[in-house]
Amino acid sequence: MTSVYEPWNETRGAEIIAEHAKLEGATLVILHALQEAFGYVPEPAIPMVASALNLSRAEVHGVFTFYHDFRKEPAGRHVLKLCRAEACQAAGGDALAARAEARLGISLGNTTADDRVTLEPIYCLGLCATAPSAMLDGRIVGRLDEKRLDALVAEAQR
Amino acid sequence: MMKIYVPRDAAAIAVGADEVVAAVEQTAGQRGLSIEIVRNGSRGLCWLEPMVEVATARGRVAFGPVSAADVPSLLDAMVSDGPHALRLGVADEIPWLKRQTRLTFARCGVVDPRSVEDYRAHGGYKGLERALTLTSDQILTDVTTSGLRGRGGAGFPTGIKWKTVAQAQADRKYIVCNADEGDSGTFADRMIMEGDPFVVIEGMTIAGITVGATKGYIYIRSEYPHAVEAMNAAIAAANRAGFLGHRIGGSTHSFDLEVRVGAGAYVCGEETSLLESLEGRRGIVRAKPPLPAHKGLFGKPTVINNVLSFAAIPFILDNGAKAYADFGMGRSRGTMPIQLAGNIKYGGLFEIAFGVTLGELIDDIGGGTLSGRPVRAVQVGGPLGAYFPRALFDTPFDYEAFAARDGLIGHGGIVVFDDSVDMRKQARFAMEFCAVESCGKCTPCRIGSTRGVETIDKIIRGERVSENLAVVEDLCNTMKFGSLCALGGFTPYPVMSALKHFREDFGRDLGPAPATLQAAE
Question: Which residue of A has its CA nearest to B384?
Answer without folding.
Answer: A86
